[in-house]
Amino acid sequence: MSTRILNTPTASVRVYADADELALEAARRFARLADQYVGERGRFTVALSGGSTPRGMFTILANEPFVDTVPWSSIFVFWGDERTVPPDHQESNYRMANETLLSRVRVPRENIFRIPAEGRSPDFAAAAYAESLAQTLDCSTGLPRFDLILLGMGPDGHTASLFPFTTALHVIDRICVANHVGRLQTYRITLTRVSINEARNVTFLVSGADKAEALKAVLEGPAEPYRYPSQLIRPRDGSLLWMADEAAASLLEGC
Known about the structure:
Largest sheet: 7 strands, mixed
CATH architecture: 3-Layer(aba) Sandwich
Number of strands: 10
């Protein structure tokens, strides 16, 4: 393994040889943070994301040595966003995480808080999830505070379900919203940028050459946060780490 660390004006970036190495190092980071926060606070609260890179990380965590060494019984699991589909739908972020990780480790079912995206309406689902977060997480700052939020980034620079030029990008007074994505002709349920930025740790997992232009624009380009919503993610009092493979990071300075 040969990890390279790049410093940009806005973030720390760790670059790995390929998606497999990235997934392994992301799993190791997850395990370290779980041990740290369970040791310090008695529990570890994490918001998961969808996508192929998290899938690789989840698969690694569900196997040796992590399946037996991570303090699963003290982990509380949430999601950063969800499609408006039932939990058994093939596009469900919950389904992917459940099949690859949660059904294979010892996280108590009562510690798993999926987004009820198939509910009465997208707005109702967002409000219900916000209420669940407010009742379960540390809200001493006025917003729920996760120990770790895992994020991906699309080729258009979106993260969670904060898509370019959508209304959710402007929301700063809610925990979670239903965001209409015109080009997809659907709603997504997503944490708002203020909720994400309240986390103690935010980690982006980015792999693939199709992300290279967006990653360069987000990290080294001018501030265009409504065109590249990932630029909106800057934790208020926490750490921000980008973990990328060589293909995704190929256009960054120093690569």
